[in-house]
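hey m, so remember when u said the tokens were messed up on ur end? i reran from scratch. heres the input so u can diff it against urs
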Amino acid sequence: MVPAFPMNLRRSLLRVVLAVGLLLAGLGPSSAHAQAPDSLEAPFVDAPLRPMGTDTSIQVEVPFVRSPKEVVVRMLEIADVGPDDVLYDLGSGDGRIPITAARRFGARGVGIEIRPDLVKKARRRAEIAGAADQVEFRQGDLFEADISEASVVTLYLLPDINTRLRPKLLEQLAPGTRVVSHGFDMDAWKPDEVAEVGETRIYLWTVPEEIPPHLQN
């Protein structure tokens, strides 16, 4: 015969059972607030979408996806980044490209990112990496940012965003500026070089002295 427990005792036991179940499932308080280490080598994962651009005729969203370390390094290598360069990363996310450019290649880096939480995280990562004096992260719309001082521009966006950015890149950047894109090309603007890291393609362009007619619109 099962003993009859008082109601208050039954409720207490039920709460204990539920708490133990949540802990075993990894959903309890200790794991709910746990965070992965804030490493520069954090894994490649998706995160919530963020709006980009000010063209109200097109609603554009770009997922924040971290670039693997080997892709970041190859992007900087293919652009021949060095201590004399000023690198602008458009849609800089957690800041790994400017930080790597500073730490490994000696460049000065500027990240443009619309999400304030990612700007805050990038600044924290730069401090942890000892690169805070070489990199700067600005919250803003990449379509409105002044990028004219860049000698290298890096991108990990989407094909239509790249295409919409193309006129800005050709207008604001000085001849000889290198543009590197992770994963996506720029339609009519044919790359000077294409490199591969595993199944990932990296595209390199150099801003020309004169803009060809087919790229002027």
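this time it looks ok to me. Residues 1-30 form one domain. if urs says something different then somethings off w ur setup not the seq
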